Amino acid sequence: MDDLLQEFIAETRETLEAISGEIVGWEADPNDRSRLDAIFRFVHTIKGSCGFLDLPRLARLSHAAEDALAAVRAGERAPDQALVTVILAIIDRIGEIVEAIDAGEALSESGEAMLIAALDGAIAGEITPASEPADTPSAAHATRATPKRSVRLSVDLLDRMMSGVSDMVLARNQLARHLRMIDDPRLESMLERLSISVDELRDTVTRTRMQRVESLFSALPRLARDSAAALDKSVTLTIEGGDVELDREMIELLRDPLVHLVRNAVDHGIEDRARRMQAGKPAAGELRIVARQAGNLIIIEIADDGRGIDSERLLAKALRERPERAAELAALDEDGRLKLIFEAGLSSRDEVTALSGRGVGMDVVKANVEQAGGRISLVNRPGQGLVIALEVPLTLAILNAVLVEAAGTRFAIPRQSVDEIVAVDGGAVRVDRVAAGAVVLLRGQRLPMISLPTLLGRSEAATAPGFLAIVSLREGRFALALDGVNDTQELVVKPAAPAVMCAGIYAGQMLPDDGAPILLLDCSAIAARAALAFERADEAVAEAEAVEPVRALLFDDIDGARRMIVSDAVDRIEGVAAGGVRALAGGLWLTIGDRSIPVWSGTGAVASEVRTVLRLQLDDQELAYPIADAIEIVPLPQDIALAADPHGVIAGLAVIDGEPIELVDPLALFDDAPAAAERPVCLLHGAESGWMEAFLKPAIEQAGYRVVRRASPDMPVALALAMEDDADAPPVPVPALRLSRERGKPLYRFDRAALIAALKGYAA
């Protein structure tokens, strides 16, 4: 019987999650028969189970609710607001009784007889459902049709499963590296089958942690209804994107912030009916919640059409409460004033309500969102509304991390904390030593610098860093000095040993493909350890912006002439490996990752001789400008003689140290640049295509190709790769390179250098 009771409690909780949202939706649309049927089935199921389990109180409440709903279904009673209010109150009471049964606690029966009597309409006005909705998530749409088969597992068990599968993936990768040295087709075939099975298993286990975000939204219709009713307001709630999936742990972290934001929107964002009509708005306010996925991020927007935030009033209140900050607050721009909303205890309104205050508790909301690895932003439209965007990673179990080196050791940094990575010797940054610390000048902005090797106590402070990771935190931005940057990978986060965590700068450990554990850095803890003062850094930035002139990068061009270009137009200065630039499709192209970037060839650049380029970016376009050498960054003179040809790429002449220097016009470069093209496609053909993808894909990509195993007739395939003994022709009419199984023959399949040379030779 105990097992049956626990199963009843679990099932009732799950259904309670969805049912209050269904009732609010039914109240808005009384003709929605599907919602009415779902609510009726719920109370009918409760009544039947209570009789079997001997739970008379639940049976009485559910039986009374069932009778009232049956009358509505038969057309004998209208689903007015009074009935909906009582039904909501009864469902709240059922939830309270279920929780009391589970906890083994006694719960008074007071008020239950009044609830049952209220269903007759005699005392409906005295019944008020609880203002707090159920804490658990719900499904806010559709009826509960035939349920899917399911089992309940603890999150700890799922975490152990994820950890085990991750170890299996690492073991598979290590095995694959060793088997590359063994020429045995049978082992290769078995490894391919193992790889497919392991990948499918990892994907399946990962998805067990995912949950539709509608479970986060399910309590919001009830919450919005009750909050609006308490304030005598009318609010229409619209929810979109409930089918987006999110890590269940992330959902729990976002539940309280989302409830707080919805209450704030109803209480202090949306005006009452009279003021809305005076402002020419509909009497009912509109609250819209939208979830969408962008890459490995989930973005949740809470938008209302209310009054927005009065930043002037917010600033005035901050000055009144903290007069010692007058100078700092007076220098704030509009964005800085809006951010005051996240300071503890600061509200845009003077009065305090029972529900919320916009700004009261917003510091906790922001802290919770950032604890989940996310960010929060505001778009304010005074008099028209406010949009709050929460941007959080898809899962906490797998983190996109940047692998870096410092003092001979590898570390990982959360990708969402890193704005960019800059090479120190590329000329785009300048490092200035100030007292015992250092400041970085990056595109006119000064940032405090922390040397990771120095922080670890394994390097002298004066050692010049190789790279800088520009880290963005809630408090501000800083530059983290590194010795090297290796790769970006999606890795599973695991807890580190307590002795390691005691260092105070780590957030856990990760295991990359080579199986060697890597410690995950906690950027906030690093900033705290270094005692960064972001307020002073902001003042330094403002001072730098006030006196810093427009700067230009001085460089020696490919044709030997010395020229310059505005430094803000240069995204980075990048070295090019041999063969990185190739002549294809009537132009020069730089291959980076899976993309090809056009290279400016107007100065007579030769593909094989390009060793350094300026990476330029305009909107969604990219362009590489080849140079011989970067000299320095200099102030751009005020007096510039305009070029005779206004349509050329030279904007004019400026005198630097007594020498006339041509100024390159970046906009003109993009006007004449070819559109970026994808890398040529290499088709892996035949029965060995799986083996080729597992072992040869890196070599093929290094040769400048994009690898596919299937091709449609209209796919622009440039080359097919197959084994020598594969007699079948590729499915598309393209040339094919054949690999030999025997050493000593042309294109032996384990001869990586020969394969790359053959692929590059074909493209040339």
Strand and helix layout:
Elements: H1 2-28, H2 33-53, H3 56-73, H4 81-103, H5 112-118, H6 155-179, H7 185-208, E1 210-212, H8 214-217, H9 220-230, E2 235-240, E3 245-247, H10 248-269, H11 273-278, E4 285-294, E5 297-304, H12 311-321, H13 326-330, H14 334-338, H15 362-371, E6 375-381, E7 385-393, E8 398-406, E9 409-414, E10 418-423, E11 429-434, E12 437-442, E13 445-451, H16 452-455, E14 467-472, E15 477-482, E16 484-494, H17 498-501, E17 506-510, E18 518-521, H18 523-529, H19 534-547, E19 551-557, E20 562-566, E21 570-575, E22 581-584, E23 587-592, E24 595-599, E25 612-618, E26 621-635, E27 641-642, E28 650-656, E29 659-664, H20 666-672, E30 681-684, H21 689-702, E31 706-708, E32 717-723, E33 736-739, H22 752-763
Parallel strand pairs: 2-4, 9-18, 13-15, 20-29, 30-31, 30-32, 32-33
Antiparallel strand pairs: 1-3, 4-5, 5-7, 6-7, 8-9, 8-16, 10-14, 11-12, 12-13, 14-15, 16-17, 17-18, 19-20, 19-26, 21-25, 22-23, 23-24, 25-26, 27-28, 28-29
